[in-house]
Structures are given as C-alpha cells and as structure tokens.
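pinging the channel bc i need a second pair of eyes. not urgent but kinda urgent?? the chain im working w is below, pasted from the shared doc
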Amino acid sequence: MMFSTALVVLLHVVVASEAMHAKSSTSPTLSYWHLNLPTTPIPDTLRELISPLSSEKTSELLDAIREGKKVSMAEPDPTPKLGRKGGPDSVASQVPQGIYIYGSAADDDIIADPSVSAMFFHEKDLHTGRKLTLYSTLLKRSSPDNRVFFLPRRLAEAIPFSSDKLSVALEKLDISQGSDTALAMKQTLKACEGPANSGERRYCATSLESMIDYTTSTLGTSSLNVLETNVPCKLESQKYTITGIPFQSKSGSKAVVCHSETYAYAVYYCHEAQHITTARVSLKGEDGSSGEGVAVCHTDTSGWNPQHLAFKVLNVKPGGAPVCHFVPNGEVLWLPAH
C-alpha cells in the first residue's frame, strides 16, 4: 500500500511550518533531555538533529505505520521530508565506519586516503605550539541539505532495526532495495550487530532519547558534560596550531563516544571508551580561523586488530604507544561532570 496523499501533505506541512519550532521547549525530545540531563547544555551537534515532528504529528505517523502504510523519506519534488536532500536513496559522505571499530582491518583505499589517515596522531604531539594538518572530512559538519534528523523514539521503535528485518524497514520507509541508502543501512546494521571491542559496551542509538538512556546508564550519572569538535572549515585541508589545552582528563577516565552512522534517519554508534584520556584543544588555522577540537588518546590498544589504520599510519604496534585522534565534527564525547 502506498503512502497516502493526506500523509504526504501532512509531512510537507510539518517540515515547512513546524521545523522552526522543533528546537523550542515544546519539543518532546528536548523536554526529555532537560528532564534527564538538567545540568547539561545540549550541544549544537545534537540540537540541530532534533526532529521537527511534534507529539501530535508523531502519533499520526505512528498510526500510519501500524496500518501498514509507507512513511516516505522524500517529497515528490524531491525535497526531503526528514532532512536529506535528494530523496530517500541519497546518502551523505562521512568518516568511514570501520575507523572506530578497533577490531577491523584497514583496506588499501583507506590507508591511501590522507583525509582519513591524518585523523590519527601521537600523544606526544598533543601540546601547545604543535601544528597538525586537518581535513574537511574531520571538521566539516553536514550541510542542512544533507542532514537527517533523529526520529522521535516512539516512531523509531516502530521501524525494525536489524539485518534480518531490513527489507521490512526499507518497505516502511519507501526506500528502494539496492539503492545507496539501502546499502549504507545494511553496512550500519552490520556494524551495530557485530562484536563489541574487547572489554567495552556498545549500542546503536536510533533516537536521541535512547542515546541519553544508554549514556546515563553506562556512566552511572546524569551529571554529564558533552564535548564536540567545532572548528570552522572553509578549505579541504590546512595546518592548525594547537594554541591551548583548556581541559585534559586523567588517564582511565570513563567516557562514552557516539559516532554518527549513515542511515535513513539519524543513528549513532555509541561505545564505552576505556583506557583513554580526553582533551579539549584550542586550534588556530593558517587562514586565521579558530575553534575547539576534542581529542581522545587510547592508552591501551592491546585488543585492537594489528591491521587497524592507526597502527599503519603511526607505525606503532598493539599495546604500544598511545593512539590519539580528534572526534569528528558531528560526533560527541560524553564525560561525567566531576
């Protein structure tokens, strides 16, 4: 059964007239944030992904899904309903998924790509005055035209999120089998269902509410800081000078890192990061731009795949010198506030 004309009009109206109000205090998702994280400001990275759907519109769409109707992700023109330009079968590029799955091996294409390999650096390079070459792959945030929103949790939970039910999800979302989006969704599900890195908990959050629940449960507190990389990026690459390190955690501090994944709506691969130190790093580019990056240094890599990209780039071995990288723009690091 095709998506009804009435609901097509409904979603068009939602995005056209309600998106401007989505970040207001009436947003159910934002209300959930303030209720569960009363002392934690919401970072721009997550705020801009809050769904434009109100509680009432979410209920109507939920009823439509339960009736077996399709929830198309694109307008007929094809302007996106829920946030991505080009319709349901287009995907935006981002940092390769396998980078943060430490049991994975790097292929030749990734090793040869400086925009990816430059993400990693030695801990000894994390000091004031050091110059690092950073690429837009790391720093550039998705444009509004390529952005996908979180679905409200009630709606996300009504859509299957598993490899064995991918065809059902594609049908509900009106996404073509074999399309770029379908293939990306398949890869994301594979990563979410794969084995966790040694000694860590991991979870794929299909809504901001579920990310909050996982993070507060994992870190054992609702008093949290959320850090994000925010560095202006107008060039494909340039050298940045570290001008200061306003914050650096103690070794062994608990943290959760959430990486954005390619999917029909916003999905984050979150995992408990153990044996790390974290730092907020002030950066200034050669073009005069300045901002702040979030760096993570892994002090115990003994359980990583010996063929992981970091070892190839830094010429170190598992269990050797710490491996550091910046958290890409659009991703977040959660830390206990104390």
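so DSSP finds twelve helices and eleven strands in the chain. and Residues 28-74+95-336 form one domain. — does that match what u expected or am i reading it wrong
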